[in-house]
Design goal:
The protein is 33% helix and 18% strand. The protein is built from 16 helices and 16 strands. A hairpin with a 4-residue loop joins strand 14 and strand 15. The longest helix is centred in the last third of the chain and has 15 residues. The two termini are 37 Å apart.
Length: 453
């Protein structure tokens, strides 16, 4: 069984790129390298259930995001046994939160970039949560799985197709789950609309839209937190840097990996302007960041075609003034939903062509929000979706269920980032998605979140 890896312009020289694909005109398909997967004969983890057990957690990364996840885990009464961070003060702060919650003091791992390698060898943890900069996600998740732990990794799970395959191969080889922590799949609106889609209210689905439009300029130029690493991606890559927040919910609506799959993507970007304009207005003339060269276009727009012919538009812009927006559109033959603000329209509804409110459809509220919504909203965490996501993952482990999102989702939802770069590098030509399930995407029919009772 072969796997496909797109050739990217930032991976090889233009000369080698042309030699590999024989490209002579814009519009030809992105060339692919075909390599035999060393794990191709391993067992699929589609439908694989957790062994029923109490979650025992180790967390790698205790900065802003890791600490937020920790607080939600503690609220879900989960044992946290080990914490890792390269900044000892951050690890110690997280440690104090665990103790304050009434648990024993977790062991700290703070001695250098590879301290996580000691954490994953512990025999008293069964799930490793990874909340670190993007380029560390795969190495840490692979290490956790190879040492017998399940891995739950922040988004995106991987930034190259090769690394997407590495997660899939390792999960199948070790028979351990690797789940991407895509919290947006658990928002109140997203779960309500998913139930309505599954119940057929939208008819036959036709298209969807998702985005990550978020003004992060202050954060990107901060001297702490994500400002220490996230801006670097804008100097190295041109494409959709962060596709999963907008894409994950739409993929669930469309039952991607569950009867349909992403086939190919075409991508285009605007010029780069936002970061240059921001630093001119805010940085001192002596600031070394003025010498950085940004290559990522400000607004990336990518269009995905599925095997069944549906389309998904995915957008990304974090460097310009704009209200926060994930767009979150799903449309079918009977109606359409669009978010920011949430609004809905069904064929024949009262009010003519005016949008209606989703408040009229509260009977479709997801069971998780009915049971846990009050505590979720008190905790915060992106409107409560963080708590709902982690509560559900812990439930799956405790009750021996299959996870809502598996390694194939992690790989597929992360893949538009490298594939958008490949498409842009070849004049917005189509770039095909690998089939990370190796042909098994039709063995399921619906996301577990849609049918959960």
């Amino acid at each position: 069984m072969s796997k496909e890896v797109p050739v990217l312009l930032d991976d090889v020289s233009r000369r080698k790129f042309l030699q590999l694909g024989g490209i002579t005109a814009v519009g030809m398909s992105i060339p692919m390298l075909h390599a035999e997967s060393p794990k191709a004969n391993a067992s699929s983890v589609i439908g694989m259930k957790f062994a029923p057990e109490e979650p025992r957690i180790g967390i790698i990364g205790t900065g802003g995001r890791g600490t937020s996840l920790l607080e939600n885990l503690l609220a879900a009464d989960v044992k946290v046994l080990a914490l890792c961070d390269v900044v000892q003060e951050k690890a110690e702060h997280a440690q104090s939160l665990v103790v304050k919650a009434g648990q024993s003091s977790p062991e700290l791992y703070t001695k250098g970039d590879h301290a996580f390698e000691s954490l994953v060898t512990r025999d008293d943890i069964n799930l490793v949560i990874i909340a670190t900069p993007w380029d560390w996600h795969v190495e840490m998740a692979v290490a956790a799985m190879k040492h017998g732990k399940h891995a739950a990794v922040e988004v995106p799970a991987a930034t190259t197709i090769e690394d997407c395959w590495k997660l899939v191969d390792t999960s199948e080889q070790t028979q351990r789950h690797c789940m991407m922590l895509e919290n947006c799949c658990y928002g109140y609106n997203e779960t309500l609309i998913l139930r309505m889609v599954h119940e057929g209210l939208f008819g036959d689905l036709l298209y969807g839209e998702g985005a990550y439009v978020h003004d992060l300029r202050d954060e990107l130029f901060s001297n702490k937190g994500e400002g220490l690493w996230r801006r670097t991606a804008h100097t190295l890559r041109n494409g959709n840097l962060y596709p999963t927040h907008g894409l994950g919910p739409v993929a669930n609506y469309m039952s991607i990996q569950r009867g349909d799959r992403f086939d190919y993507v075409v991508s285009m970007s605007t010029p780069q302007r936002g970061l240059d304009e921001y630093r001119k207005a805010h940085l001192e003339q002596s600031d070394p960041r003025l010498a950085e060269k940004y290559i990522n276009g400000d607004m990336n727009t990518s269009l995905i075609k599925t095997a069944k012919g549906l389309t998904i538009t995915v957008k990304h812009d974090t460097v310009n003034p704009h209200p926060y927006d994930r767009i979150n559109v799903i449309a079918g033959t009977k109606g359409v939903f669009a978010d920011y603000p949430p609004r809905i329209y069904f064929d024949g509804q009262s009010g003519g062509e005016a949008w209606g409110s989703i408040d009229a459809y509260k009977e479709h509220q997801h069971p998780l929000w009915k049971r846990e919504g009050e505590i979720a909203q008190k905790l915060g965490g992106h409107g409560g979706m963080d708590y709902i996501m982690l509560y559900r993952l812990m439930q799956c482990m405790r009750e021996g269920l299959e996870p809502d999102m598996d390694v194939y989702d992690a790989a597929t939802w992360s893949a538009p980032a490298p594939l958008s770069r490949a498409s842009l590098a070849n004049g917005s030509a189509p770039a095909r998605f690998p089939d990370f399930t190796r042909g098994k995407w039709q063995e399921r029919t619906v996301s577990q979140i849609a049918v959960q009772e």
